[in-house]
Amino acid sequence: MASAAARKKVFVRADLNVPLDDNQTITDDTRIRAAIPTIKYLIDNGAKVIFSTHLRRPKGVTPKFSLAPLVPRLSELLGIQVTKVDDCIGPEVESLVASLPEGGVLLLENVRFYKEEEKNDPEFAKKLASLADLYVNDAFGTAHRAHASTEGFTKFLKPSVAGFLLQKLIF
After folding, report:
1. 54 partner at 20 to 30 Å CA-CA among 26, 79, 146, 166?
2. CA nearest 9: which of 53, 37, 42, 44?
3. What's an example of a GO molecular-function annotation for this chain (predicted)?
4. Which pLDDT score, from 0 to 100, does residue 5 have?
5. What are the distances in angstroms from CA 91 to CA 7, 15, 59, 94, 144?
6. What is the pTM of this model?
7. How far apart are CA 125 and CA 89, in angstroms?
8. pLDDT tens track for 39-85
9. Is the dihedral of CA 76, 163, 146, 134 positive or negative?
């Protein structure tokens, strides 16, 4: 994965569906810590990481299910400042991806804010795939779901590979 990732835009789908208390504080960061080896490996090898996940099952854009509370913990564990964007597709996302430095991480907003995610909408999957050069699925908890960011994505971007967590839990 190292040579394939160097200087590439790598879309990583992880499962960071962590519990939050009423103050939006993470109460168990196990899933975040589990995703770190893959992300760290990619940033250490000069990849531009586009990070995607979900939080709960929102019905459209729901502020309490924003991924903003995850940024401080991700930044701390990775040892770099993670940038979060308030969407997962569109011009703002494309601009931030284009300006992402090697070894940088851009966290996309909750992919389930779009109903197209769980419907595995091909156009939505294509928009996500257009952001990257390489796809890494490290979302064990959602790998069995035919969603746009897990199954649909792979129809539009090759290569598609398993991250370290997914490999560890499957093989």
Report:
1. 79
2. 42
3. phosphoglycerate kinase activity
4. 76
5. 22, 25, 23, 5, 30
6. 0.91
7. 10
8. 999 999 999 999 999 999 998 899 999 999 999 999 999 999 999 99
9. positive
